[in-house]
Known about the structure:
By secondary structure, the protein is mainly β. The chain has four domains: 40-110, Roll (Ubiquitin-like (UB roll)), CATH 3.10.20; 114-184, Ubiquitin-like (UB roll) (Roll); 187-256; 260-365, Immunoglobulin-like (Sandwich), CATH 2.60.40. Helices cover 10% and strands 52% of the residues. It has one helix and 31 strands. The protein has one helix spanning 2-36; strands spanning 40-48, 51-54, 58-63, 67-74, 78-85, 93-97, 102-110, 114-122, 125-128, 132-137, 141-148, 152-159, 167-171, 176-184, 186-194, 197-200, 204-209, 213-220, 224-231, 239-243, 248-256, 260-266, 279-284, 290-291, 296-299, 306-308, 313-314, 319-323, 334-335, 350-354, 360-365. The protein has a four-stranded mixed sheet, with no helix packed on it. A four-stranded mixed sheet has the order 10-8-14-12, with no helix packed on it. A four-stranded mixed sheet has the order 17-15-21-19, with no helix packed on it. The longest helix is centred in the N-terminal third of the chain and has 35 residues, at 2-36. The chain is rod-shaped. The protein starts with a helix and ends with a strand.
Amino acid sequence: MKRICLAAVITLTLLVFCQCTSCSSQDKEEEVHELSSPEFCSLSINVEGQGVTRPAPGTHEYSKGEEITVTVTPTAGWKFSRWEGDASGNSTTTTVTMDSDRSVTAYFRQVPVAFNLNITIDGQGTTEPSPGMYDYEIGTEVEVTASPVQGWEFAHWQGDAAGNSLTTIVTMDKDKDIIAYFEPAMYTLRIEIDGEGTTSPASGTYEYDKNVEVTVTASPATGWVLEGWEGDVSGTSSSVTTTMNSDKTITARFRQVGNVRITYIFYDGLVPSVESDEYVEITNLGDSAQDISGWVLIDGSDGEPSFTFPAYVIEPGETIRVYTNEIHAEWGGFSFNYGRAIWDNSSPDTAILYDSSGNEVSRKSY
């Protein structure tokens, strides 16, 4: 009986010892496991707008306490704006300490597209904005105003603007060029003379309002004729009219009509009463022959009578006479065929010689 009881005690003691030994071993294993298995935290990276991050957007796991650097790069046409969540500021790089689960969001904003506006001028004036190159966001409506200087006026817009209003509106939907054209409000007329003669207005420089019509008349000197107009007018008429729509120069060109002159007037005839033997003497003082066909000799004081030369060429040094009412072949055979005295004895008269175009060639008084 004692042997049985002793065996039972020994058996029970062994069972208790084994149980205690098993529990102690299990606790140690759990403690070792706890020391060898580190904690992890998650980092969620998000993007609003168009851009990329490094690390890429998404959820990443990092050891607890680790410091993670996140960098952003915007895509073309976008700009990094700010961090939100567990990061802040607007630097393109931020650092997140992983002491717990974290979430950061990178915000990007679109950069407005800009177009160039080039403003230039032609003439004398300016613009507001001043001439130059400017950048404007897409869709911007730009008001440009032209201002001429004194003596000039605004004409029109050209390029990517049109019309003649002082102010134009340019919508910036692409690169644009506009030109403000100015033109003189007054123009200059220069009158010149080539040869001997005068003009009215006299030769010189004048200013006229834009689009005014100016008439200029030429008067040749004795022995000269108007050959014609040159420059910004043309023709052979004694008067020309030009419209002042630009600066202009005109020239009255005169040419000498030989050297045919009235050299003498025999005004006190010997024939009683009618003085038919009066005459006007005409001489070619030049070195070349002169055709005087169609030329007219007239009493300039009374306006009559007049004598028109038939076909005739007066030679150098030759002198001819036009009698009041006589024919003398040796002097050319010319006569007014006038029945009474022409040249007044009591008060001076003036004889005038015109060429076939009506230009005065010579005049003489006594």
